[in-house]
Hints:
Elements (H helix, E strand, L loop, with lengths): L1 E6 L11 H4 L4 H13 L4 E6 L3 H10 L6 E5 L8 H10 L3 E5 L21 E4 L4 H16 L2
Parallel strand pairs: 1-2, 1-3, 3-4, 4-5
The structure holds 1,3,4-trihydroxy-5-OXO-cyclohexanecarboxylic acid.
Amino acid sequence: TRILLLNGPNLNMLGVREPSVYGSQTLTELVSDLQDYAAARQLELSHLQSNAEHELVGRIQQSLGQIDFIIINPGAFTHTSIAIRDALLAVAIPFIEVHISNVHAREDFRKQSYLSDIARGVICGLGPQGYRFALDAAVSYVSSNP
Ligand code: DQA
């Protein structure tokens, strides 16, 4: 099973960025833990973090026929990006939207997502563990929808 993990803008600042909201783990640590978790389950996990919308759109487009499932934390693009929504609709690859923080317990503008209604599911507010829950859900989704 080929899984693509996408992290949007400012997630490269994990560990430094508002630790009371996002925790102290860096993105490098988080991704390397997930790689171990994925490897133990015979999953192929690729990762891209980008601060640029066009790079995320490009990577989603390239996933057509190459990737079985996407896990995406779009960062602030969650609340703004019709382009990422359209790319996910274009490739029609099932995906889970992950947020480290509980976006519903923060500013009103974070309650709106351009992705949630087309996602298989949304995980938010559970910290970095949310990514692992998303991996588990991806595995069970892919095994029941071969
Ligand atoms: C976030 C929540 C977004 O509102 C914010 O812009 C982020 C991170 C999260 O993981 O909690 O950059 O996606």
